[in-house]
Design brief:
By secondary structure, the chain is an alpha+beta fold. It has a single domain, classed as Conserved Hypothetical Protein Mth637, Chain: A. The protein is built from two helices and six strands; from the N terminus they run ββββαββα. Strands 1, 2, 3, 4, 5 and 6 form a six-stranded mixed sheet that branches. β5 and β6 form a beta hairpin. The chain is globular, with a radius of gyration of 12 Å. The mean pLDDT is 92.
Length: 101
């Protein structure tokens, strides 16, 4: 999975967010980033808060371990997952993908 790599202090996750979706979910890889649909609007930090909440729940980590380090005001973001390795994050998102029919 090219959207996650090891970095200083934890894994670095490259994401592409799509705010105002019908529901919050990971959509898979898109252009070297993990595409995440967020039900929250991009107003007053609501989408960023929803992203942090989604990632902390999906990876079973505390919200304080999820930090948007780049792109807080855009759709393309880099997120640091403190204490996580790229392999752990990749496995967690692989487990979220439904099996192919």
């Amino acid at each position: 999975m090219s959207f996650v790599k090891d970095g200083p202090g934890g894994a670095l996750l490259e994401v592409l967010v799509v705010p105002r979706a019908s529901r919050t979910e990971a959509k898979g890889e898109h252009g070297g980033r993990l595409k995440i649909a967020l039900a929250a609007p991009p107003v007053d930090g609501a989408a960023n808060a929803a992203l942090v909440r989604f990632l902390s729940e999906a990876l079973s980590v505390r919200g304080s371990e999820v930090e948007i380090v780049r792109g807080a005001r855009g759709r393309r973001k880099t997120v640091r997952l403190a204490g996580q390795s790229a392999l752990e994050v990749a496995r967690a998102f692989a487990a979220l993908d439904p099996p192919a029919p």
